[in-house]
Amino acid sequence: MSAVQLPLALPARTALGRDAFFVSTSNAAALAMVDDWANWPGGKLAVTGGAGSGKTHLAHVWAEATGAPVIEAAALTEAEVPALAAGGFAAVEGVDALAELEDPRPREAALFHLHNMLAATGGRLLVTGQGAPLTWRLATADLASRLQSAAHVALGAPDDALLMAVIVKVATDRQMEIDPRLPEFLARRLDRSLSMVARTVETLDAAALARRRRITVPFAREVLGL
Known about the structure:
The protein has nine helices and five strands. The chain is of the alpha/beta class. The chain is 42% helix and 10% strand. The chain is elongated.
């Protein structure tokens, strides 16, 4: 029996800058809105989409351009608000997830004050979440109304070109060597989900390390049962 090599859980560096953002029909409108931040109505924009649709990457593209800090809504505190607002730009991710907290009110209060401080100084606020802001189950009525009035752009379902680009990106982030035919093979067989694609590539990486195998199309068929 041959020995099995156990893969080390080495951290992969995820590239989130503009150079690593692949533009396709599913995200071009959202990127255009993010780039037009100087003209956001009321100085705010909500970027929405499913899990792994590219919301975080877009937030970091905007942060790279403006110097905005990026913070999760569930981690936002009142004490941080003045510093976050000081630069005139802030990105708050996962606002819809506040509804899952046992007591979301302190986080919502902090976000409400951040919103108001930026609005008072002509700053810009970018928020992200799943579903339109109207569907976010926020406990603070004033915050809900402010975010529902924001300009809103949704990321569409990824097309084959975007899926293949993400496969290559994740493989590059993880320093993987893959069969050039693999991106198209996977894109045509996996669910239309960027998060699913990323997890699949990570699964192949772990399996290849454990079995000391090259990541080829036949290997992907064997591991994934495709």
